[in-house]
Amino acid sequence: MELQLELQSQRSPRRFLPNPAKLAVNALLLLFTASCIIPLLWIGYSSLKTQAEFANNILSLPSAPQFSNYWEAIKLTNMLQLSWNSARVTLLSVIGITAIAYVTGYITARLDFKGKRAMIFYYLFGMLVPIHALLVPIYLLFKNWGLADQWYTLIIPYIAFNLSLPIMLVSSYVMGIPREMEEAAAIDGLSFSGTMYRIILPIAIPVLTTVAILQFFSCWNEFSFALVLLNDESLRTVPLGMSYFKSQHSTNYPQLMAGMILSMLPVTIIYFVFSSRIIAGVMAGAIKG
């Protein structure tokens, strides 16, 4: 008995010794987390500086918080108009993406037809094509067809270039739903469209919510298409409004950072409110697929 207690006393400290591999992984994760958080903190307190303080030392804390930078940013950029433009384009784009992704994802998950593999490959290939390589032909196409500088201009490319991932998520999720439910509905006389909307749609709400939130982030923060396709200042979105802080000879960085904080507020609030649903939806789609 004494020998067993002695052996246990010798082994017990080893249980608390950290694993070098785990330490290395945790250290990398901490460094990655810090690399994401520290720039946000820097932007936050730099937005409260005066321009002279920022020019003197970009890393120092503000001596006296200048909350007037936020009011000046709102007035300079006409933030309310920019926010309305972004919200209108983003909401309509998200509705279009979610609706098309559900119908297409359901069809690819449940029906076998000629060209199905080619269509799936086409959507997968769309995730690999760099958007910036298509800006020039899209600009020429929109200009020749009279689609540029319209309130709906950005909705078209936002829907077209954001369908691939949502379709894959929805298709993977639907494939995990038992077919017996649809077969029972068909026996009761429910049509294909009725089954899709009345039976499967309520079950697919988690993944559709995830798709909608992720695409809201993507459309709200999009810059390239907005820069190329919009010249009318009254139609500009929030990301384009950040260019108002830059003049020919100087840039008011504290006001710019105040504008960046204001532009990040909607997506930040939505993320913290729906973060659990985003993770649950993505994990559900991955596990069921």
List keywords for this structure.
289 residues, single chain, mainly alpha
Number of helices: 15
Average of pLDDT: 84
> Poorly predicted ranges (pLDDT <50, ≥5 residues)?
none
Which CATH class applies here?
Mainly Alpha
Query: How many structurally independent domains?
Result: 1
Keywords: Cell membrane, Membrane, Transmembrane, Transmembrane helix, Transport
Organism: Paenibacillus illinoisensis
Domain ABC transmembrane type-1: 83-274
Protein name: Carbohydrate ABC transporter permease
Walkthrough of the structure:
The chain is mainly alpha-helical and 289 residues long. It has a single domain (70-242, 250-288), classed as MetI-like (MetI-like fold, Orthogonal Bundle), CATH 1.10.3720. The protein contains 15 helices and no strands. It has helices at 2-15, 20-46, 51-56, 68-77, 79-110, 116-126, 135-144, 155-160, 164-175, 180-187, 192-203, 205-221, 224-229, 238-241, 253-288. Helix 4 (68-77) crosses helix 15 and helix 6 crosses helix 9. 26% of the residues are buried. The model has no long low-confidence stretch (mean pLDDT 84).
Task: Give the topology, please.
Layout: H1 2-15, H2 20-46, H3 51-56, H4 68-77, H5 79-110, H6 116-126, H7 135-144, H8 155-160, H9 164-175, H10 180-187, H11 192-203, H12 205-221, H13 224-229, H14 238-241, H15 253-288
Helix pairs in contact: 4-15, 5-9, 5-12, 6-9, 9-12, 9-15, 10-11, 12-15
Subcellular location: Cell membrane
Pfam family, one: BPD_transp_1
Protein name: Carbohydrate ABC transporter permease
